[in-house]
Design goal:
globular; single chain; 47% helix; alpha/beta
Length: 224
């Protein structure tokens, strides 16, 4: 059964390729997390996930889904179990993200929810795609940097990789150049804003990342 909340995997993938950026909200306050996600969307982020480790994350997802600007999608991160998938779907989450090879991958794929599946090794990346993942979240990317991403991509040129973990403003372009379709941004973008910290500072960082992505698109002649 396909959820009415879901976007088609191919559509999500195309959009993420163009945006090159995925926001990752993780904090200790669901209300603040929702505000941070919406603020990032207002600045131009089209894809934002809220980690289920955030208190009241499902309420935050509902809030963001109801108020998101047109063309912006809210997903859930740290989705591990089949039950998590059901809860996220009920809350209106439009895609899921996992930190690892988890039962949620097959469950989401079978219900038509796109999955950005966490993997680090070539074997994990292959296994996740076999289970129905839409793309691979290379995590933690910082363990090997862009050189490692390139090495993992060499035997799997058709697997879409999103680099996540320790990717800041100075690192993002290196991952794009190594073939990542996007980078996932947690702390380097949101800072403490999902725990009640300064939203204006976060908005400034969001504009910096969006500007970087636009510059890369212009420099490489790729769509944005």
């Amino acid at each position: 059964m396909t959820s009415h909340n879901a976007v088609a995997s191919a559509s999500l993938l195309d959009g993420i390729r163009q945006a090159r950026l995925v926001g990752i909200v993780r904090g200790n306050d669901g209300g603040a997390a929702a505000k941070a996600a919406l603020a990032a969307m207002e600045e131009g982020f089209r894809y934002v996930e809220i980690a289920l480790t955030t208190p009241n994350a499902l309420d935050a997802i509902r809030e963001v889904r109801a108020a998101a600007p047109p063309g912006c999608l809210v997903g859930a991160g740290t989705v591990l179990s089949e039950a998590d998938v059901a809860h996220v779907t009920a809350a209106g989450g439009q895609f899921i993200v996992t930190p690892s090879l988890a039962p949620s991958i097959s469950e989401a794929a079978s219900t038509g929810i796109p999955v950005l599946a966490g993997a680090l090794t070539p074997s994990e990346a292959y296994e996740a795609m076999e289970r129905g993942a839409t793309a691979i979240k290379l995590f933690p990317a910082s363990i090997g940097g862009p050189g490692y991403l390139k090495a993992v991509r060499d035997p799997f040129p058709d697997i879409p990789f999103i680099a996540v973990g320790g990717v800041g403003l100075n690192e993002a372009a290196g991952y794009w150049e190594a073939g990542a379709i996007a980078v996932g941004l947690g702390g380097p973008l949101f800072g403490t804003s999902a725990s009640g910290g300064d939203l204006e500072e976060m908005r400034g960082r969001a504009r910096s990342f969006l500007g970087l992505a636009a510059e890369f698109a212009a420099r490489t002649g790729t769509p944005s």
